[in-house]
Amino acid sequence: MEAKPTVVVVPAKLDLEKEICTFLVQLSKKVLSTKERFNVAFSGGSLPSIVASFLADREDVEFSKWHVYFADERCCPLDHPDSNYLLVKAELLDRVKIPSSNVHAINPELVNDPEKAAADYQSVIEKELPLNDQGIPVFDCILLGIGPDGHTCSLFPNYPQVQETKKFVTHILDSPKPPPSRITLTLPVLNSASSVVFVISGSGKTETIDQIFHKPEEKKPASFVNPGPGKLFWLVDKSASAHIDYLAKPVSQYW
Ligand SMILES: O=C(O)[C@H](O)[C@@H](O)[C@H](O)[C@H](O)COP(=O)(O)O
Which residues pair with 144 in a beta bridge? Predict the structure, then answer.
């Protein structure tokens, strides 16, 4: 991978939950010391539960100024068990005071037309987020997981969505991970964020991490996420870290 990420390895999943909490508490304070809002995007899978575990109990976070977005979303009603919104709601939104108007979910009326749903979500992020000098929306933080095949968001290996250079949000109709219809942020947006954090737990991710860091020929989508120096973080627990342990430095050096 081109990026020089900050790699933090912690002993166990519990420590990962504590570290991502500390990271977000600090980052949100820093952002809110100069701006009116903290714009953060969540992906699905195991991430929301890891992120919310300690964060939801923190009383020193200005959640009223958080704006929550979805790095990818399954095209289904918002109360469907597949919905990433529902997952983030259950893990975090139901437990902290983020105004509902600050939660930017997919338009539930468009879930049967993923292309339109993606275009609509693009217009949401273009309206809500600051744009950089290339007109690309800039998130303060994007929280990502990886799949065993090296996908991140809903950018799957060898799928055309990985090549997208113009759209900020695109759709997929044949995702290899069910459900098949989804929308996803694209690499231009991931790579324009002020910070991107991969939060990874478990031995099932060890080989995938090796491919992402050391085998560019594998072209794993997560290996193309590179927002630039100082902006990419990998928080990994010991069981997932075999191939990047050597990159890790003590946590206290970062936050
Ligand atoms: O909606 C989704 O399917 C996710 O956003 C997806 O990209 C997820 O983050 C990874 O597949 C990792 O999932 P796990 O953390 O559950 O392995």
Answer: 198
Q: Which single residue is written with the structure tokens 């933080």?
A: 141
State the Cα–Cα distance between residues 161 and 57, nearest whole angstrom: 37
For the CA of 154, the closest atom of ligand 1 is 7
238-250 core/surface letters (b: 16 or more CB in 10 A; e: else): bbbbbbbeebbee
Residue nearest to atom 13 of ligand 1 (CA): 45
Per-residue pLDDT, averaged over 171-186, amounts to 98
For residue 68, report the phi and psi dihedrals to the nearest 5 degrees: -110, 135
Q: How many domains does the chain have?
A: 1
Ligand 1 pocket residues where CB is under 6 Å: 43-47, 72, 84, 145-147, 151-153, 177
- For residue 50, tell me if it sits in a domain: yes
pTM of the model: 0.97
- Does the residue 245 lie in any domain? yes
The reported pLDDT for the residue numbered 153 is 98
Q: Please count the CA atoms within 13 angstroms of the CA of 93 that sit on its side-chain side.
A: 22
Backbone angles phi, psi at 83, to 5 degrees: -70, 130
Q: Are 107 and 99 in contact (CB under 8 A)?
A: no
Residue with CA at minimum distance from ligand 1 atom 16: 45
Per-residue pLDDT at 246: 84
Considering the domain boundaries, does residue 1 fall inside one? no
Contact 105, 76 (CB under 8 A): no
